[in-house]
Amino acid sequence: MKIVSVNVGRPRENPWKAEGGLTYIDKRPVEGPVAVTEPGPKGDCSVGLAGDRVGDGRHHGGPDQAVYVYAQEDYAQFHTLIGREFWPGSFGENLTVSGYDVNDARVGERWAGPGGLVLQVTAPRVPCGTFRGWIDERGWLKTFTKEARPGPYLAVVSPGHVEAGAELEVVHRPEHDVSVAMFFRAAMGERDLIPRILATPELTESDAAFLRDRLGE
Q: Of 13, 36, 10, which Cα lies nearest the Cα of 24?
């Protein structure tokens, strides 16, 4: 798959969160190579790309959500669906890519990139109030959920860098069939899928806890 754009967040006040604070969902394309390293622990608001952060460290960022990826092809689908143009970074993703169905990527799948970079698919993006407010489209969360095109989060296995025009190569695809889209559907209401996803060896402890919480365990 090709990296179309590398996007880094600009801090801004978050009017969609009761307690306020900053949000970095306003991602903008940047030029040149950007270093990618494993971020600090969840809670310190760090992410994988140099120069970027999250505003809500409790729910975002950390090693399992180091990099967020979205595909141009999925933007095109939403454009067709609601008649609105979306640009690289519109959904707050770090990397906008093309040429690969990122929602069909499997949990534990690995992608290699420039400078020795290796990323591993962990989980889908689950929409929050800030995302809904940022997009500002009537019924957006229902639309986003129904389409099941969430884009994946990835962990950093080996550091490297990213830049527009570079390629990411799938170098490992697990034998199981638990995809990003399936995980998303389970998290957003199809609870019967959760036991199947919990049995996935590559599932992180934090994502397993998230799904068990969805089951009320």
A: 10
Give the span between the Cα atoms of 123 and 196, in whole angstroms.
14
Q: What is the pLDDT of residues 31-75, one digit of tens each?
A: 999 999 999 999 999 999 999 999 999 999 999 999 999 999 999
* pLDDT digit string, tens, across residues 150-185: 999 999 999 999 999 999 999 999 999 999 999 999
Residue 161: DSSP 8-state: E
Taking the CA of residue 120 as centre, how many other CA atoms within 13 Å lie in the half-sphere pointing to its CB?
15
Amino acid at position 124, single letter: P
Instruction: Check: CB of residue 133 under 8 Å from CB of residue 180.
Output: no
C-alpha–C-alpha distance, residues 135 and 70, integer Å = 15
